[in-house]
Amino acid sequence: xxxxxxxxxxxxxxxxxxxxxxxxxxxxxxxxxxxxxxxxxxxxxxxxxxxxxxxxxxxxxxxxxxxxxxxxxxxxxxxxxxxxxxxxxxxxxxxxxxxxxxxxxxxxxxxxxxxxxxxxxxxxxxxxxxxxxxxxxxxxxxxxxxxxxxxxxxxxxxxxxxxxxxxxxxxxxx
Length: 174
Fold this sequence. Notes:
By secondary structure, this protein is α+β, with helices and mostly antiparallel strands.
């Protein structure tokens, strides 16, 4: 019996932490279809104007459903003048779900997450890095050869746009 009470108190502590703006609010959508992407969740929640989203985690629940966790940045909940985000947070703390429409005939019930927020998840935060080009060749021959490949026609200098193109070309390449 005491393990059930300690589990309940631990879960209550997690909910208190996840509903605190100082530590960053964490919300949960317990049921979404598998075709819902992070971009879709981000767009819908951002349109509600409740705070700055730090990251979104999607966890596979079963074959057709996922669970979504929305983590807001520390001290970034609310602050938008057109929407009263504090009312939403107060209702969530009272156990009232936040109902957000995401399509013409669908809505999500959003709750405060009762799972401990994972620290910086490298999978969700890392972006693919692109190696920068070491050197760009801006020699006259390169420009002339590229120019001849792209536009083999003569420029009409009576046309203002083509005249500006002609005026911006280096003299050595003409």
